[in-house]
Amino acid sequence: MTPEHQPDPRPRRFRSAARVVVVSPGEREPEVLLMQDSDPGVPDVHWWVTPGGGIDPGEGPTEAALREVAEETGHAADPRDLLGPVGHRVARHGYSDRVLEQEEWFFVLAAPRFRVSTEGHTEREQRTMLGSQWWPLSALARTDEWVWPAELLELVAVADRPAEWPLELGLVDAESTVPVRPDAAPPAQDAATG
C-alpha cells in the first residue's frame, strides 16, 4: 500500500462549535477582530481566525459564542449585541497532530474596539495563538494572508439581512495545514474544547 493510501494515523475529533465575527465601527471603516493561529508541527505557518471554539455539554451555540469571546479576548459581550447565528458550515481541519471536524455556527458581535486579553486562553491556545489584530474590511478584501473562514466578508454583510440567516456555507475541506486524507476513519464524537 502506498503512503498516500495508508489510513490517516492522526486522531480524529468531532464537535460542534460557535465562532464569532467581532465587528467594531473603526475610525475610518468597520474592523473585524481576528486571532493569529498556528500549528506547532508546521513551523512558520500561521493563519487568521475568528474567536470561537467548542460548545460545552449542556450549552447552546449562543452561550458558547459569548463564553468563547470572553475566554479568547477578555471582552464580556452584551448578549443584546450578538446577532445570529448568521452562518453555518461543517469544516474539516487537518493539523499535524489531529484532524478536527466541526459543525460551526457563526455569530456577529457589534462591539467598540477593545484591547485583547489572553488570560483566559487554554494551554493549547497558549501554544498556538500568536496574537490578534483588528482588520479593516478593505484590508481583509485584499490580503494574501490565510483568513478562515474564506466567507468572512459575506458573514459581515449578511448580519444586516436577518431573513437570510443562517447563510449555509456547506462542507469545507480546504482550511488545513496538513491535508486530510479522504480514506481516513470517520471522526469520533468528542465534546472537548480547544
TrEMBL record:
- What are the required cofactors? Mg(2+)
Instruction: Name the residues that span the membrane.
Output: none
Under the heading Gene3D superfamilies, the entry gives: Nucleoside Triphosphate Pyrophosphohydrolase
Location of the Nudix hydrolase domain: 13-160
Q: Which PROSITE patterns match?
A: NUDIX, NUDIX_BOX
One Gene Ontology molecular-function label: hydrolase activity
Question: Which key words tag this protein in UniProt?
Answer: Hydrolase, Magnesium
Does Hydrolase count among this protein's keywords? yes
Q: Which CDD domains match?
A: NUDIX_Hydrolase
This protein's superkingdom? Bacteria
Which family does the UniProt entry place this protein in? Belongs to the Nudix hydrolase family.
PANTHER family linked:
GDP-MANNOSE MANNOSYL HYDROLASE (PTHR43046)
The protein depicted here goes by the name NUDIX domain-containing protein
Native source species? Raineyella antarctica
